[in-house]
Specification:
about 375 residues; 12 helices; elongated
Length: about 375
């Protein structure tokens, strides 16, 4: 994709795209592998630094291409090792990426859109509104930035980013093509070489996107469910009015069956005090998931100003987990990490203006079939 200078940004191009690019330039396609390694394995952001490419070829490349890296406007490191970056996009909006180290692995939470159109009632990102899709370069650029942040001059690069979760700002499946390209780069051996079992796409239940994933990627799948029945889920996750729980679970099953190996869906369930954390909710959840091979990740709500929701007590969290475990499920309660820098789950926007009017408009548009989500569905 060309940037405002008219140059092609090499950052977001897959190996296959770069091979075609170099062939079109009259160059050998092996140049693509060299460039991918320089950018993603070595963290280079200048074409002139690519020392195993001839000077003539580099000059030729600079005439048509550039390497645009993320523009960081703010970064902060938590006392628990969590790292958070605020990145400015060309249009002036901001996105966020968060790195979480734990138990011998480093997980990077990556954004796919600027804001989010789905407006889940409990998520602070939805209050920002939807401002556009990220390019493949802007998505993979977050991985580049996190890896680069650990570089020590004169020392061999350590592999600190071992896992990537598409759980940041936005709904990944409403930016399908760019997300797939970026995830391919994450798993590309000449780039980051992350295992397909360590790249996870999290969706609120965009059924056409889940179905389209089959055959195009084999990353792990996480489902943001948050409620055990359609009535409650439609209140918390407006998208449920378009694709109900059963339709979403059926799509997840179809995708998992396409993988060719044994894996399970991660079901994400944000616990909100007195809303979806009652004993009956736990029993209902155990029933609704009985035909879906899955593990359940309970996420205690992370409060933010004017949310209208509260975090449940530890006793309520543990009781909910116990009921699910007795039903035979593998259940974890996610630890809150990075809350001292507003990097906890559901806090990836910080202090933003409350845009509840946009919420009403989105729900109305969804019912009419003219929402921003519908337009994105047409691209899927």
């Amino acid at each position: 994709m060309n940037d405002e200078t008219g140059l092609v940004n090499l950052m977001g191009m897959t190996l296959a795209e770069l091979e075609t690019f170099f062939l079109d330039m009259g160059e050998k396609k092996y140049r693509a592998q060299q460039v991918v390694k320089w950018i993603h394995q070595r963290g280079v952001d200048e074409i002139d630094q690519m020392s195993d490419i001839s000077k003539v070829t580099r000059e030729k490349l600079k005439q048509v291409a550039t390497i645009r890296t993320p523009e960081v406007t703010y970064q902060k490191y938590s006392k628990d090792g969590t790292r958070k970056w605020i990145i400015k996009t060309p249009g002036g909006s901001s996105i966020e990426a968060v790195y979480i180290p734990e138990d011998g692995r480093g997980t990077l939470c990556v954004s796919s859109q600027i804001g989010c159109a789905l407006d889940c009632s409990f998520c602070s990102t939805g209050k920002q509104g939807f401002n556009g899709d990220l390019t493949a370069a802007e998505i993979i650029g977050q991985v580049w930035l996190a890896a680069k942040s650990f570089d020590v001059p004169g020392q061999k690069r350590e592999r600190r980013v071992t896992n990537v979760v598409m759980m940041g700002m936005g709904e990944p499946l409403l930016n399908f093509d760019n997300v797939i390209s970026a995830m391919n780069l994450m798993m590309e051996d000449n780039a980051y070489g992350i295992s397909k079992r360590r790249v996870t796409l999290s969706t609120s239940g965009v059924v056409p996107g889940i179905e389209k994933m089959a055959g195009l990627t084999d990353v792990c799948l996480a489902l943001s469910l948050h409620a055990p029945n359609d009535t409650l889920r439609s209140q918390l996750v407006p998208l449920n009015k378009k694709y109900n729980i059963q339709a979403v679970l059926d799509a997840c099953t179809t995708y998992m069956d396409s993988l060719g190996d044994i894996r399970v869906v991660t079901v994400e369930y944000t616990l909100m005090n007195g809303i979806n954390d009652e004993v009956e909710h736990a029993h209902e959840l155990a029933q609704v998931l009985k035909n879906l091979p899955c593990k359940i990740n309970l996420i205690p709500f992370n409060p933010y100003p004017n949310s209208g929701y509260e975090r449940p007590s530890n006793n309520r969290q543990h009781k909910f987990r116990e009921i699910l475990q007795q039903a035979g499920y593998n259940v974890t309660i996610r630890k809150t990490r990075g809350d001292d820098i507003d990097a906890a789950c559901g806090q990836l926007v910080g202090q933003v203006a409350d845009m509840t009017r946009r919420s009403e408009k989105f729900i109305q548009a969804t019912e009419l079939g003219n929402s921003a989500a519908d337009k994105a569905h047409n691209r899927i």
